[in-house]
Amino acid sequence: MTVPPHARGYEGFTGRIGRTTDDSTPSWAPVPSAAPGSPNVVVVLIDDMGYSDIGPFGSEIDTPNLDRLAASGVRLTNYHTTPLCSPSRAALLTGLNPHRAGYGFVANADPGYPGLRLELADDVLTLPEILRAGGYATYAVGKWHLVRDANIRPGANRDSWPTQRGFDRYYGSLEGLNSFYYPNQLVSDNSAVDVDEYPENYYLTDDLTDKAIGYLKDLRAHDADRPFFLYFAHVAMHGPLQAKPADVAKYRGRYAEGWDALRESRFAAQLAQGLFPPGTEQAPRNSETGFDVPEWDSLMPEQQRRFARYMEVYAGMVDSVDQSVGRILDTIEELGELDNTIVVFTSDNGGTAEGGPEGTRSYFSQFAHVTDPDWVGDVPHDEELIGTARLGVHYPRGWGQASNTPFRFYKGQSFAGGVRVPFVLSWPDGLRKQDGDNGIREQFTYVTDLAPTLLGLVGIDPPTVRGGLPAKEFDGVDASAVLRDGAIASSHTEQYTEMTGNRGYYRDGWKLLALHPGPDVDAPRWQLFDVRTDPTELHDLADRFPEKVDELAAAWDEAAWANTVFPLLSGGALAVRRPAEQALSRPVRILAGTPPLERYRCSKLIAFRDFEIATELGGSGFAPGNEGVLVAHGDPQGGYLLYIEDGHLVFGLNSYGRYASVDAGPVPVGARRIEVSATVAPRLRWDFTVRIDGAPTGELLGQVQLVGMAPWTGISVGVDARGPVSWDLRERRGPFRYTGALRAVTYTPGPVQVPGGAIERIEREAEYAAD
């Protein structure tokens, strides 16, 4: 056809443009499309679950669905991750060492250095971005924790939110932890879910599983061919520990013999399964101060009974996770795609010591009363409430060491108990085991290897640019050859690790390690282990091989500079926040009907300071019959609320699960302004005064301040939304929405009144616990 002289093209358009479609040729931009037969990918990541907590790694807990995956797939028995959550998630999703990805710590601080950006940089590619560009549908549910908590609120930067980082859909918690019965805030795609009250029998793991299944069914109803990537990052097993009654009931009485017997039985099962070579020694109970675990038989019968209850709840939660995995597998099988689906199951770090030596009824108080052990009074509590919505418990650290069988130490440390975790991968169509292959892989692998390995299995090469910038190249290696053949040596031969001064370096079977319990973060006392013959890191060879210590210490130093590890966090650096956050402490007027505010934003209005709360009643002021909550901030784990019931004004404070209130008397007809003043008192207390139209009507004195991670649920006006501050009031009146005219509530923060050293200690512990 002759091109008309008046025809012109448009830049970038590959067809032909005439004056009408009769003399034009259409063209369509190519749509990313995966190769025919590409496998689906499912990555299930668990939080704070140790090496031995599932059946394929020695556990007595019922995990039939994980047993099924292990039987059809491979187990990486020498897989390592970082000691904390955000760094592990960043490394898993980017293939980069955590500091290069910007996550040298958890996303609850902001020290202001390159390795501690705690946001993904513009030149960092993520696994979902790469897979989506390769034609995959991408979904994420559960815990994200790659957004600085200052950026979770509306109006803040969303560059590190899931849907900005390659996921088509997201549903879950951007926080590092959450309640399983009353999540403080859930996010769907780019917005907080506006919910006042969760339905009866709500449980977070079930909610996340329902959403994940819904995404997969929705995709297949619209597209029969497009492969999917599902990243299911469980909030379990992070504290507070809460489990459904039916799941706990399965394990009643199962842990009466204690953690010493449990460690022995699990280690025997691990040896029988071939997870360790004959002659491997189990680590003795941790004895170092702050990590130590008592002999079970030395405990009083009351302690043994109560401590066992914690582990029953923990086991019920693991069981619930396995049920969730089963529901996902059943859905994919119903779609006819299970054999061509790569399924990965692993944990972000080892079991934790955060419950202290005796466990805690209040997870948040455990990290808030570091300046005064008797501050809250975390005394024995009603055992029947352990694991329920009414308490936010965590187990004693003896169970954490049992979780990490057969290793030493816990989450947060660079020893194996903190960084060596279970790993199961199944792909029946693509990884068929040869006769005699037990599926056990003993080669060293690291969390950064997962992204390049999955891309190698599905046959997609990562782009070299992101948004016009040269993309950072992977630090991890493709371990798919190891998955296929257990005789092939690992190509990941050396690896540094560092977290809050805990550090290590692995090279060719040698492992150099150092704890950081002392005052100088840059004065490591190195220990050296040959983990080929001593996988449980018991026999320190540093004195025998000083030249090897010097070699690996120099290698650690070189890797630290290359990976932006420096400067090491010392003193109060973890509590540092960028100056712009001071704006969050300005007075704010919250109109009635505003959705519940985000947690961190709310904390800046009250933490460590005096503050004033003023409620404005509209219309003609208070009228007989008006009742309900005027303002509420928090939930069963800690908070306060102001409400009117039967004509009386009541102010209540929940101090980490201990509730106190004051009846501030009848509210006069026509009252227009109701106020609460909080004044800082000695020993981290508040004195509260309640006023009606300027006249004092009640006091609540000497109350424990809510700091650290509490209050967990944000401020709501005119209703006690989500988790109840007062359990009794919720049972009687539900969320108790105010029935009269309520215009607004104004918060006026005063100056910080608590000494800076105490604030740094509390916030450091709270940030660490938030992981």
UniProtKB/TrEMBL annotation:
CDD domains: PAS_like (cd16025)
Protein origin, superkingdom: Bacteria
PROSITE patterns, per database record: SULFATASE_1, SULFATASE_2
Listed Pfam families: Sulfatase (PF00884)
Region (Disordered): 1-35
Domain Sulfatase N-terminal: from-to ranges: 39-460
Sorted UniProt keywords: Calcium, Hydrolase, Metal-binding
InterPro entries: Alkaline_phosphatase_core_sf, Sulfatase, Sulfatase_CS, Sulfatase_N
Gene3D superfamilies linked to this entry: 3.30.1120.10, Alkaline Phosphatase, subunit A
Family: Belongs to the sulfatase family.
Name by which UniProt lists this protein: Arylsulfatase
Species this protein is from: Rhodococcus oryzae
